[in-house]
Amino acid sequence: MSLEAETYTSTGQFSKAEELYKRMIDITQHHEGPESTSRELYNLSAALINQEKYKEAELTLRDLLIQLTGRLVDGDSGHFLEQKAGAVGLLCRALKGQGKSEEAEMLEKNAADQQKQLQARGNAYGLSQL
């Protein structure tokens, strides 16, 4: 189902991709729990933005960011930090699409500041890949 949704996305059939991502989220939540849906939520948000469904994308992305922020910091933190950065970028697009440019700019600034702090922390610990 994931490959099919990605094919719809890559061919510009965003409403079909949206339907599949929503079904995938429901199935994954039922079998694995809501914390296992971050990839599908991200992809759903992108499909929504491409259809100019900015408000729905904003709500989905805020849920995703809460989920990602709640993850424990462990050896795979870099992966979650990358997901979070991508989600923030999409959230900024969703906000701008609704005319909320000030909020988007503030979010972008905060994200840039956090990225600098993470890089500094990574360099201090010899983890330059962060």
From TrEMBL:
Protein name stated in the entry: MalT-like TPR region domain-containing protein
Species, as recorded: Aureobasidium pullulans EXF-150
